[in-house]
Amino acid sequence: MTEWDIKKLRILRTLADRGTVTATAEALHMTPSAVSQQLTNLARQLGVPLLEAQGRRVRLTDAAHLVLRHTEAVFAQLERADAELAGYLSGEAGEVRIGAFSTAVPVLVVPAVAALRRTHPGVEVRIRETEAAESYELLTAGAVDLALSLAAHAPGARDPRFSRVTLLEDPLDVALPPGHPLTAAPALRLADLSGERWIYGGSGPWSEITRNACEAAGFVPEQAHSASGWTAILAMVEAGMGVALVPRMVTGRAAGVTVRVLAHDRPARHVIAALRRGSESAPAVSRVLTALRETAATLRRTGSGSDPAPAR
Question: How far is CA 69 from CA 13, 44, 65, 159, in A?
């Protein structure tokens, strides 16, 4: 019978995710030499080569990829075992760590945690503001239990490591400078803004969201300014330097600009929660997911309907 060592398999899995021995050592708080030694021992235990030299780096062999395909099911089953044991030992108590992108924290995560504290005070939630790529690295390494991101940032739905839960469709409204000629235009459409100067991120999914929405409306937006933070974007809109698509989750902070709903175009981004496959049955994690779903449902109800009033 082949000897399977879960600790060593976890190191191999992390190497597959991170790509280098040095990055793997950093993620697992080990030394590079300890990582190499553990993987050498694992290869000896399994009786197959797991790594081969590729210049100054190493790459996983076909045998290593075969091992990893089977260990994903093992890790998922261990997550389920941990979840059941946690439920047996702590019942309604437990700690859940959330990694979430910045705009989701005040609008979605904080209200959900506040509601959960009233109904299940034994569930401790720790929030960590993260970028999407970082949140999935933390999720894989076991440093967070839930990762909130936009669907455009997330690993594919077929990734065997994660379960995905859709929480919210977040509509995109347009922010106009004070006194803009289209402030009071009836049934404003995205195509009405084809001649405007636009403000959005220089790269990444948010840049793609803006460009894709405009291109679907029949034009390529002229990018006048680039910014990634909503404070900077809205300040430039207020100063008359351009217009911007703004998520509904942000419009509550859009003081000094006019926010209009694009009812015809209905551009939107999608907010999801991801967790390690198998961990969704943990009682505390399930409670947090329920609270997030209920908060998202409230946002959908209060965020639908007519144009929001101009922000002052």
Answer: 10, 19, 6, 11
